[in-house]
Specification:
Chain lengths: ~800, ~425
């Protein structure tokens, strides 16, 4: 657990300068004023038993397991809530019979109504109640009455189950729901020994963070449907890993048994995810084993057939070599830094091409310029800690709860301490309400105008030292927005952060997997940069592509139009592009397609060579989160037979007569030797706002839990997703009735209507949720004009 | 010692509950005097009077008021604890029914003193009569210009709200009451911060018992010296004693603090059928019991403490020798188990454990070892629970064991009903015969 002081509103800086002297178990020590006894004792290595205490939750002093003696106080005091004062003399169970007896008494009471079902309980073996009963409890029970019983288990939501008879009423889960997640629908009900955790009748505990309550439950009362009865903790092998789902960058612990991942836990990383993660990061890992491509394939007479690795590698090398200089490279947004680097290098050296892009989504040239100028290769500038202490945070085209859930949690923590959160948005979302945020109204597409016409009080807030502007990846779809954000940052001094959604985007950018950019943010057009990179890669500067290549839609269009001879595609879902039809046409029209994939997809269906690659558990690697912080992870399954993208590319390169490092350590060494770039950078874009769209405008983002393929095969998780609805203003909702048909250029969807705090001429739809995929079904993107028609009764 | 009816002086007037009736006996004259004084002067008066809280804990009222920070820019609140739920306590409810305007006048004066513009009276929901009477009194006072804006031209504004509790003993605990009043589930809050600094809606709040507040008009109207002619140095004033149990005339007896149980017993017409006092509790089930040998101990905060008990709510329950101590203690523990809010482990689980064990004693299935275990369990609750409810639950058994160990020993072999016929202890006449 994190050792932090969590009491009092004072900042860490204030506390650090204000030390007091105290004595704990005879040891004199100095602690910051306001420190709790339990935290100070931890620093001495004294573990006071505890259940309700959690360093990241407000003290509640309910379980009374941590009672200690304070000299001069008539009663034993709870160490978890007792603030140390100057000269205070504290005696824990090791120095005080009063404390020892009090703790033993509480432990006896806690075990009274707790079932002796440890042998069948998921928590058995890693249970704070079990452990602390052994350390401070009585050897024998004096209770021979009837224990209370409850119907078991009950679902607090589809994923989280509750066995109430095991609950010790520590209120960790309810405090997490209320204080951390801001989803206070999990509550303690009834009273006395009948007290239990629960929700309102038939109302599930709706939260993207619900899995955390399973992890912080100090007994086996809360379990997850995906792990319940699957394993015993002592049979598991635990590996520290990093989450591959989004750019929040959570540290995780992956537990596996006999070659199968059984569960993932949020791991302790005070600088990033503290001790939390989202339900997607926790539960969405079944895709790693489900529906995998297990052998290379080559196309013969129009049909894909299984091939040997040497045959497939040779086929890939042959096809790519033939198209040398005219190969497009599409890198998925969840590549590791090392894999993205391999693609970037392979494209420039073996393929002689700068036509490369990692962005499998809506893009723009403005964004390309913005990323090259302000983000690529920069060190961590805005961090989570700085978010927490920022006086104000302005969100632009970013919905943290759905698009970067740990940013949301940190913003909520910040807001509870006084940070003002503002969001330029058409929808005042639930997530924004949870960070006590204020909406600055702007329709999708009008963000640039809104940024340039912010009112004076907002600009003043952003001018305060430490203020932050966070721009989401959707800004790429709104002309002028990124330019306006850069301008605003320069004008106010607020620091600018870019928050992509996928875990691999920031790393791929820094690795140079974008046209015109070499690793470390080096411009391809810069002679010094070319020299450095060429030297690192062991080629002549002139061997690198001469001109900046194509990216985004231009790259796809070039493939469709035959200007590109071959495509190398790694981990791309074509339906994720803003124009899926263009993407499909690009892959279909390209003369030769090599697909590096772990699952069957629209690309593998059309590929000439399919090379299966490893998922995150089968390789080591690094992600850069939105901060730019490396999230390094090791290989979970060391005996995996699969190979990383980098390794496969190195084999193809070898077959082409080149040499490319395929090993993670070799790649890291090469990247490290290249070092950061200190030369000239791209110019920041200066683009005007687009003209306002006519009629009803579509607002949309990807919900955290949606049709994303990496959530496959986890039905309990899917059942906790938010329902697919169209959110419109109350006025529009009234006019529409129960159902609305939203029509775009390519078609329409009919979904239930929900009234919300949305601008009148805007409709919000989920971007990629069951029953609503706006790119493929509507042919629309955020900012598109759509037509609303009443869709009849529900 | 003679009875000294003050709050109860005119209870024989059937119209006392109306504003006319109350005014007929000098009501609201203290308010007029108070509004002409500096609020701090009133706090000083109450401090000087030595009035101690009548809700059970006996905390000095003026001192409590003085903890409220002044000129802090926050709203202040007065909350009257009228959630009288203590087993055996029945004084606040009769006061509210018979003399509600004394409460209202006290509320206005107290609010003025602590600079509160909102006062809340949290009344036990099971007593609609009291709620109606108090609500009616507030309405009358408002119509008379005693509540509202610029009261009597003083520039002082006050609104008073009656809130009905929903049937939880824990909501008589002051911070749980605040949570309940705010609309949350009533459970005690972590202290500090204390309500005087961050109480209702995180603002400075004074929480006083009904009887305490009813003392205020009389103290302000008649003065500190008059008030201190009653009672003792440490327990000045008078007290509304509500006597119940095996007495001939159970009821309300207002007398100076320091009166003895023997005297109160005389006023209450002595014991039914002339039977012996077996045990009695000076102030609700939450204070340790005493026996006949304590009948001459003065009913003051300090003398009761010296006798190993507490004055508590000052509502003595008297039991004669037909009552099984084991059974009485079991009933009380069943109450605490039922009312434990569940927040803290010792109270939630301890009352469950003790009650189950005592129920076995009641049926003659106790063991010697369990008699000692019960002492341990009470020690494991007392001083270790989150609030005073746990402490209260740990009170009856040790005292009962101290005076009546033999009965617990007997309960290890035979059911208590064998020795103590339940019908014999009924106080309604002829019940046993029927």
């Amino acid at each position: 657990m994190t050792v932090t002081s969590n009491n009092g509103p004072g900042s860490d800086v204030e506390m650090a300068t204000d030390l007091i002297s105290v004595v704990i178990d005879g040891v004199e020590m100095q602690v910051p004023k306001g420190t709790l006894v339990i935290r100070a004792a931890e620093k001495l290595g004294i573990e006071v038993p505890r259940f309700c205490d959690h360093p990241l939750l407000d003290p509640v002093a309910a379980c009374r397991a941590c009672l200690i003696e304070v000299e001069g106080m008539p009663k034993p005091q709870p160490a978890c809530a007792q603030v140390l004062g100057e000269g205070m003399n504290v005696k824990t169970q090791y120095a005080s019979e009063i404390a020892r007896a009090a703790q033993e008494g509480v432990m006896e009471f806690l075990l009274l109504n707790h079932p002796l079902d440890c042998p069948v309980c998921d928590k058995g073996g890693e249970c704070p109640l079990q452990n602390q009963a052994m350390t401070v409890g009585r050897p024998e029970s004096r209770f021979d009455g009837d224990k209370r019983e409850f119907e078991k288990p009950v679902n607090v939501n589809e994923q989280v189950l509750l066995d109430r008879e095991r609950c010790v009423s520590c209120a960790r889960c309810t405090r997490f729901a209320e204080q951390i997640a801001g989803d206070p629908s999990l509550e303690l009900l009834q009273r006395g020994a009948k007290q239990m955790v629960g929700t309102a009748d038939d109302e599930p505990f709706e939260s993207y963070y619900s899995g955390n309550v399973v992890q912080i439950c100090p007994v086996g009362a809360l379990t997850s449907a995906s792990y319940r009865f699957r394993s015993r903790p002592f049979d598991l092998v635990s590996v520290p890993t990093a989450c591959e789902h989004c750019a929040s960058g959570c540290s995780l612990r992956t537990d596996y048994r006999r070659g199968v991942v059984t569960r993932r836990l949020a791991w302790d990383d005070p600088e990033v995810n503290e001790e939390w993660n989202c339900d997607k990061g926790r539960f969405a890992f079944a895709y790693q084993t489900h529906g995998r491509i297990d052998s290379p394939m080559v196309r013969e007479n129009g049909e894909l057939r299984v091939a040997s690795w040497p045959e497939a590698i040779a086929a890939a090398a042959r096809g790519l070599a033939q198209a040398r200089g005219r190969v497009g490279v599409l890198v998925g947004g969840r590549s590791t830094v090392e894999d993205a680097y391999a693609y970037a290098r392979f494209a420039r050296t073996s393929l002689g091409s700068d036509d490369i892009d990692f962005r499998v989504r809506q893009t723009s040239d403005e964004e390309t310029a913005f990323l090259a100028a302000t983000i690529a290769g920069t060190a961590v500038s805005v961090s989570y800690d700085e978010l927490e202490s920022a006086p104000a945070v302005l969100l632009v085209a970013l919905e943290p709860e759905d698009e970067s859930p740990i940013v949301q949690l940190r913003l909520r923590k910040a807001a509870r301490r006084g940070t003002k959160v503002l969001s330029i948005a058409a929808v005042a979302s639930e997530g924004l309400a949870k960070v006590d945020g204020e909406r600055v109204a702007a329709r999708p597409g009008d963000e640039a105008t809104a940024l340039r016409s912010l009112e004076a009080p907002v600009r003043e807030l952003l001018s305060k030292p430490g203020a932050v502007i966070m721009v989401g990846e959707r800004a790429a779809g709104s002309p002028g927005t990124l330019s306006a954000a850069v301008e605003l940052s320069a004008a106010t001094g607020a620091r600018l952060a870019w928050v992509p959604r996928r875990a691999g985007e920031r790393g791929a950018l820094d690795a140079g997997a974008l046209a015109g950019l070499l690793p470390g943010g080096r411009p391809l057009a810069d002679a010094q940069a070319r020299d450095q990179v060429a030297a690192a890669w062991g080629v002549a500067p002139n061997d690198l592509p001469a001109n900046n290549g194509r990216s985004g839609d231009a790259l796809l269009a070039a493939a469709r139009d035959g200007a590109i001879g071959a495509l190398l595609v790694g981990g791309v879902e074509l339906s994720d592009y803003a124009d899926p039809a263009l993407a499909v046409a690009a892959v279909e029209e390209a003369a030769f397609v090599v697909s590096l994939e772990n699952h069957h997809s629209a690309v593998t269906e059309r590929a000439d060579v399919v090379l299966p690659v490893a998922v995150v558990t089968e390789k080591a690697g690094t992600f850069l989160n939105w901060e730019g912080r490396p999230r390094i992870f090791g290989q979970v399954f060391r005996d995996a037979l699969t190979m990383s993208d980098a390794k496969v590319l190195s084999m193809v390169a070898e077959a082409m007569g080149d040499s490319l490092p395929g090993d993670v350590r070799a790649i890291r060494a090469e990247m490290g030797a290249l070092g950061p770039w200190s030369g000239a950078r791209f110019e920041a874009p200066m683009q005007a706002a687009g003209s306002p769209a006519e009629g009803v405008v579509l607002a949309s983002w990807r919900q955290l839990l949606d049709s994303g393929l990496m959530q496959d095969a986890e039905p309990h998780l899917a059942a906790t997703a938010r329902p697919t609805v169209a959110i419109v203003s109350a006025r529009t909702a009234q006019a529409l009735g129960d159902l609305v048909t939203v029509t775009g250029p390519a078609g329409s969807v009919t979904v239930p209507v929900q009234a919300g705090d949305v601008l009148d001429d805007v409709v919000w739809l989920p971007m990629n949720s069951p029953g609503c995929h706006i790119h493929s079904e509507l042919g629309a993107v955020p900012g598109s004009t759509v037509r609303l028609t009443s869709g009849g009764a529900a | 010692m003679t009875l000294t009816p003050v709050i109860t002086e005119h209870w024989d007037d059937p119209e006392l509950f109306t504003i006319e009736g109350y005014r007929r006996h000098g009501g609201y004259t203290a308010l007029a005097s108070a509004l002409g004084q500096d609020p701090d002067a009133i706090i000083t008066t109450v401090k000087d009077s030595g009035l101690r809280g009548r809700g059970g804990a006996g905390f000095p009222t003026g001192l409590k008021w003085s903890f409220v920070p002044q000129n802090d820019g926050k709203p202040h609140y007065l909350v009257v604890n009228a959630d009288e739920s203590e087993p055996g306590a029945c004084k606040d409810i009769p006061i509210m029914i018979a003399n509600p305007h004394a409460l209202v006048e006290g509320v206005i004066i107290t609010s003025y003193a602590i600079r509160a513009n909102h006062a809340f009276i949290y009344i036990r929901g099971e007593v609609p009569e009291a709620i109606r009477r108090v609500a009616n009194a507030i309405r009358e006072a408002r119509e008379a210009g005693l509540i509202g804006t610029n009261i009597q031209g003083s520039g002082f504004d006050l609104d008073v709200v009656v809130h009905s509790g929903a049937g939880a003993y824990i909501c008589g605990e002051e911070t749980a009451l605040l949570d309940s009043l705010e609309g949350y589930r009533g459970q005690p809050r972590l202290k500090p911060p204390f309500p005087a600094v961050a109480g209702l809606y995180a603002s400075p709040t004074v929480i006083n018992n009904v009887e305490t507040i009813c003392n205020i008009p009389y103290i302000v109207g008649r003065g500190v010296d008059w008030f201190r002619t009653f009672g003792t140095e440490k327990s000045p004033g008078f007290k509304v004693f509500a006597v119940s149990g095996h007495v001939n005339r159970p009821g309300i007896y207002e007398a100076p603090l320091g009166i003895t149980m023997r005297e109160l017993l005389d006023y209450a017409g002595g014991m039914i059928d002339g039977r012996q006092v077996k045990f009695w509790l000076p102030g609700g089930s939450s204070v340790p019991m005493l026996t006949a040998e304590h009948l001459d101990v003065p009913m003051t905060y300090e003398a009761m403490a010296e006798a190993g008990t507490m004055l508590g709510t000052g509502t003595p329950m008297i039991f004669n020798d037909t009552v099984s101590v084991v059974k009485a203690v079991t009933r009380w523990l069943e109450f605490y188990k039922h009312e434990s809010c569940g927040k803290c482990t010792p109270c939630r689980e301890g009352t469950y454990f003790i009650t189950g064990t005592l129920e076995r004693f009641q049926h003659g299935h106790g063991t010697d070892r369990e008699m000692e275990t019960l002492v341990d369990l009470c020690n494991q609750i007392s001083g270790r629970s989150f609030c005073a409810l746990g402490d209260a639950a740990a009170t009856p058994y040790p005292a009962a064991l101290k005076y009546f160990r033999d009965e617990f020993v007997a309960a290890t072999t035979s059911p208590v009903d064998d020795e103590f016929d339940p019908a014999a202890s009924y106080v309604f006449s002829g019940a046993a015969a029927r």
